[in-house]
């Protein structure tokens, strides 16, 4: 340590802390020549009366200053035992604190976007929203009056909103673990696919491009993520459909009687009147649920795959006859509306889950039981936080190192 300059005056106006002990040197660190060794010696040297002085540099008093009062020798303090560093709890290699931070950031971003949308409606948009709200109230009142007419009450007794499948094909009650896991993975992949798809649709200049290692067409890093996630989503769906038929649970979501249609109308009227149909999801879906699940799995999903494949880099661009038969503009007109349908379905699905028996519904799919406790809700909150965290983390800065393992990533 360099000694203080001889005769350097103390900085005026900076009073020394009286009696402040000198900071001990780091264990094992050599002392500077001339530094006092008496532990506990005062750090500040006395100065002229009435002139406050700054504390001297530890271990290097100014020349000519009176010697510090000797202190009684003390035994060397015992070296404290180093505390064991606790490993942070991680999930998929990410600390819980980081997941929570990204989750809250994602929720804040969604809330900000929603508020910006509301503000952007303007006067005309607000009038349209108000008119739609009034129309919805009128529809609810009219439907409630209609379903309580004598002939409608009699008809709805015959078609209460659901039908029982034949005993020979009736599935076991409850949801097996494979169905619950694949339901969650489907939600996760769809959230990531939706985010990356919107980036592809709205991007002006991609932040990076990806190219196969063996060479080929360059695509944006966002499109690479979108198509890669599509593969996982399709694999998850294929496994789900195979297990659905192998285990006999197919009769839950595949209509097996023409009664499904009048029962679906009955269930729809009950939903529109806010007099919810009876919920027996643990053993059987109502008819409108069955039709919607069938459409999502066996109609909308294949449409999304076929139209997405046509627009992807995997489509054979040299096949002129095939391209003429199925042009890319047609695929675009199918793909985006299909995405809107998925978003609408998820919104209505989640709304009904929370308004038609939240605890039982969440326990069915997240905890695998028919109880009314909060176990399923807690699992749902945890799963939602993981989804939001991964969606928030799916940025080019994070994606590029992963994409680089499967090809070449460059600025252009």
From TrEMBL:
<feature type="transmembrane region" description="Helical">
    <location>
        <begin position="334"/>
        <end position="357"/>
    </location>
</feature>
<dbReference type="InterPro" id="IPR011577">
    <property type="entry name" value="Cyt_b561_bac/Ni-Hgenase"/>
</dbReference>
<dbReference type="InterPro" id="IPR016174">
    <property type="entry name" value="Di-haem_cyt_TM"/>
</dbReference>
<feature type="transmembrane region" description="Helical">
    <location>
        <begin position="125"/>
        <end position="147"/>
    </location>
</feature>
<keyword id="KW-1133">Transmembrane helix</keyword>
<dbReference type="GO" id="GO:0009055">
    <property type="term" value="F:electron transfer activity"/>
</dbReference>
<keyword id="KW-0472">Membrane</keyword>
<dbReference type="GO" id="GO:0005886">
    <property type="term" value="C:plasma membrane"/>
</dbReference>
<feature type="domain" description="Cytochrome b561 bacterial/Ni-hydrogenase">
    <location>
        <begin position="175"/>
        <end position="367"/>
    </location>
</feature>
<feature type="transmembrane region" description="Helical">
    <location>
        <begin position="99"/>
        <end position="118"/>
    </location>
</feature>
<feature type="compositionally biased region" description="Low complexity">
    <location>
        <begin position="1"/>
        <end position="57"/>
    </location>
</feature>
<feature type="region of interest" description="Disordered">
    <location>
        <begin position="1"/>
        <end position="86"/>
    </location>
</feature>
<dbReference type="Pfam" id="PF01292">
    <property type="entry name" value="Ni_hydr_CYTB"/>
</dbReference>
<feature type="transmembrane region" description="Helical">
    <location>
        <begin position="291"/>
        <end position="313"/>
    </location>
</feature>
<feature type="transmembrane region" description="Helical">
    <location>
        <begin position="221"/>
        <end position="246"/>
    </location>
</feature>
<feature type="transmembrane region" description="Helical">
    <location>
        <begin position="377"/>
        <end position="398"/>
    </location>
</feature>
<feature type="transmembrane region" description="Helical">
    <location>
        <begin position="181"/>
        <end position="200"/>
    </location>
</feature>
<keyword id="KW-1003">Cell membrane</keyword>
<dbReference type="GO" id="GO:0022904">
    <property type="term" value="P:respiratory electron transport chain"/>
</dbReference>
<dbReference type="InterPro" id="IPR051542">
    <property type="entry name" value="Hydrogenase_cytochrome"/>
</dbReference>
<dbReference type="GO" id="GO:0020037">
    <property type="term" value="F:heme binding"/>
</dbReference>
<feature type="compositionally biased region" description="Low complexity">
    <location>
        <begin position="65"/>
        <end position="79"/>
    </location>
</feature>
<protein>
    <submittedName>
        <fullName>Putative secreted protein</fullName>
    </submittedName>
</protein>
<keyword id="KW-0812">Transmembrane</keyword>
